[in-house]
Amino acid sequence: MFSRASRSHLGGICLSATKRLSSSASATSILPSLAPPTGFARLTDRALILLYGRDAAHYLQGLTTANIKDFTFDSLGGFYTAFLNAQGRVLHDVFVYPIDHPLGLKGKDGITSDKPGFLIDVDKAHAEILRSHLKRYRLRARIAIEPADFHIWATWDDAIAVDSKSDIALSAPGFGCVDPRAPGMGRRILSVANISQALPGEEASLEHYDIRRILKGVPQGHREIVSGEALPHESNIDYMSGIDFRKGCYVGQELTIRTHHTGVVRKRILPVQLYKPSEKPPDSLQYEPSSDSTLPDAPRNIARVDARGRSAGKFLRGVGNIGLALCRLETMTDVKLTEEGSQWRPEHEFKVSWPAEEHQANEKEVKVKAFVPDWHMNRVSLRSRHQQQSP
User: Fold this and answer.
1) Per-residue pLDDT tens digits for 141-169
2) Residues 211-220: pLDDT tens digits?
3) What's the predicted TM-score (pTM) here?
4) In the prediction, which pLDDT does 29 show?
5) Which residues pair with 41 in a beta bridge?
6) Closest CA to 46 of 94, 99, 97
7) Which of 93, 96, 301, 315 has the fewest CB atoms within 10 Å, i.e. the most exposed one?
8) What pLDDT is recorded for position 6?
């Protein structure tokens, strides 16, 4: 059971002037303003791996949570998925783009270069780790694994409603897919050349894109979906269209399927707002460029202000006064998972504490409030309808 006692409020954003932010990681930094409503950003924190060869599709099918057979090379689209370890923990969350040719690259080790393949879009800091993971299961599979040099872009238009099953025409050279992770995430585009002059809207920075993504509650990369520790359901990969629960065997499937059919997901990554101990809790999620809140080093445990006991969650990453945290749903939000009720009360507040610097007497502290995005509830309703329609 998954119900809400009341509705959380998200989406409001304060358009204050930019000021300085104190951080435990760096003394001061300038906070960016909001991303433009229609814009694009080059995702310089991502890298591409090319996997191709006769056995490429079959090989990838056994390693990822998505069903490769659902995507054709004719469409030249893409999809969101994840690589898991044998214990069902997330190693890498990725986008995969089927290509009908290996983009002119010559084959190695006897692999012919005229076979279809896949471009894998991964956190740049873990690209080499993923390449090693792919080679680990290679055995006698007729595949080649190589780095690929492309520009990776995110584009969006807040005036256009794009859902996970629809597509929008490209107005620039390149190929890609709709970002299915949450409503309004727009589209991802790959290009050989710099196509910034051909993309619609204003160019934004990577940090602008991250703020926009965090406000929507979309985690990505090893800092937010901690490699080897995070579970796919707790990381919302099921909500973000990253798992096909009907496909056959893949690495890490057993725990993932069992959780889907019999388990209760008690923790999920949610957007949070930080506020000072002297301030009242916010009513809605608001990004404030003028915030002078102190960001804790991440990850850090979250605890209830007036109680002791087990952790209520874990703060993962923040920008300014917003961030993402792995939250116990029945502790930090009004979500009810079972008929037994929850521990949450409207008056409860939560905090993140961490050691002060040498010249400071007291430990540092900031309060945290979690918000459940509306699209979480919409995805739950959609899944319930699909399960009722299934034979």
Assistant:
1) 899 999 999 999 999 999 886 544 444 44
2) 999 999 999 9
3) 0.86
4) 58
5) 154, 204
6) 94
7) 301
8) 35
Q: What's the pLDDT at 266?
A: 93
Cα angle 69-375-37, degrees, rounded to a multiple of 5: 100
How far apart are alpha carbons 256 and 265 in whole angstroms?
11
State how far the Cα of 86 lies from the Cα of 80, in Å rounded to an integer. Answer: 20
What is the structure's pLDDT at 101? 58
CB 148 within 8 A of CB 177: no
Those residues of the chain that have pLDDT short of 70 are 1-29, 71-76, 101-115, 161-173, 358-361, 381-391
Token pair of 196 as six digits = 């910034």
Tokens of 168: 């929008």
Of 65, 63, 79, 57, nearest in space to 247 by CA: 65
CA distances for 97 relative to 67, 87, 127, 150, 204, angstroms: 13, 26, 16, 12, 24
Q: Check residue 366 and give its pLDDT.
A: 93
SS (H, E, C) the chain: CCEECCCCCCCCCCCCCCCEEEECCCCEEECCCCCCCEEEEECCCEEEEEEECCCHHHHHHCCECCCHHHCCCCCCCCEEEEEECCCCCEEEEEEEEEECCCCCCCCCCCCCCCCCEEEEEEEHHHHHHHHHHHHHCCCCCCCEEEEECCEEEEEEECCCCCCCCCCCCCCCCCEEEECCCCCCCCEEEEECCCCHHHCCCEEECHHHHHHHHHHCCCCCHHHHCCCCCCCCCCCCCCCCCCCCCCCCCCCCHHHHHHHHHHCCCCEEEEEEEEECCCCCCCCCCCCCCCCCCCECCCCEEEEECCCCCCCCEEEEEEECCEEEEEEEHHHHCCEECCCCCCCCCCCCCEEEEECCCCCCCCCEEEEEEECCCHHHHHHHHHHHHHHHHCC
Instruction: Tell me the average pLDDT of the chain.
Output: 83
- Give CA 143 to chain center in angstroms: 28
d(CA 250, CA 294): 42
The tokens for 101 are: 């040719």
